[in-house]
Every structure is written in structure tokens, then in C-alpha cells.
Known about the structure:
By secondary structure, the chain is α+β, with helices and mostly antiparallel strands. The protein has helices at residues 8-16, 21-32, 99-104, 106-122, 138-146, 148-156, 159-170, 175-190, and strands at 37-41, 44-49, 52-59, 64-68, 92-96. It is elongated and about 50 Å long.
Amino acid sequence: MTKSRMNPKVDEYLSKATKWKEESEHLRNIVLACELTEQFKWMHPCYTFEGKNIVLIHGFKEYCALLFHKGALLQDTHGILIQQTENVQAARQIRFTNVQEIIEMEAILKAYIYEAIEVEKSGLEVNFKKNTETTIPEEVQTKFDETPALKTAFEALTPGRQRAYMLYFSEPKQAKTRAARVEKYMQQILNGKGLKD
């Protein structure tokens, strides 16, 4: 593995990691062995092929994961890809709770990464389901009108994050509860963060 391909921002991220450090380092070595370019996006190590996102390493409370940006298009011959939530359409995760799992799956992980690169080379795209139900609740529209910066920040979020917010904001039956939810998450939207970030 060539040192030049390692991104200093990822070195820094790993040096500060308290949880999943060893797991993330193992995943990093596996991914870099697949000739991908290491970048740091969305506060996580992200690996690209010719500028296109292939996989991302991220940690959660219960597990760390290798996230395939177009995982929905992979064959998943081993049945190990997980859809994070029902609203996630393209990405899929492979989850780990210890280093041993990663070591044992190295060959499989490489095969999945190479398949993901082939998917990207072929130009395949995930056909996103148009979510026609995602209407903007009145309370959200009011806030957008009052605070143009909020609307701008919201529109800069990924479509998945926008959808998650809209589903969350429109759930309550009472207008008061909907307005309170919008109020509560305004700063998070302005910070460019999703509902679960």
C-alpha cells in the first residue's frame, strides 16, 4: 500500500477515534488495497473511483460499518448488505462489532468493493423511487418564509436527509407539535446536518 494514497485527514480522524479505531484501520487497509482514492467527506473516510463515491467507513454506537454508496445495485451473494432505514434507497452497509469479523471477511469485502467499482464503471444508477407523499408541511413553509437561510440550508442537504426531515415534520397530527419539531431542528438544518447526524 502506498503511503501517498493515504489522506492526512483520515490519519487525523483515526488518531482521534476512541471507538472502532482498530476496526476502522483494518477496513481502511482493505479498501486502500483495492486501489481507491482516500478522501475525507461528511466527517468520515470516504473512498472514490475517478471522483465517484464507492465506500465510506463510519462508526455508530452499536457497530462500525462499511457503507456502499450504490449498495442496492450489488449482487450481495453473501446476504450481508443491510439497508439502514426504509427511507435509504441506494446505500447499503456491512456492519461489524469487532476486528475479528473484519479479518475473517477480508476476501469477501474486497470482492464487494471490486463489484462496486465495476458498477460505477458501467454507469449503472439506482432508480430512486419518487416519494410523492413528501409534501412540505405548512409549518415548515412558514419557517422557510421567515428564515430564508433555513430554506437555503435545507435545499443543500442530500435528498435523503430532506426526505427524513419532511417525514418527521409531517408525522404529528397537531400543528403545534409539527411547529415545535421544526423549531427544535432549525439549528441542525442550518448546520447542514441530517435528522440522525
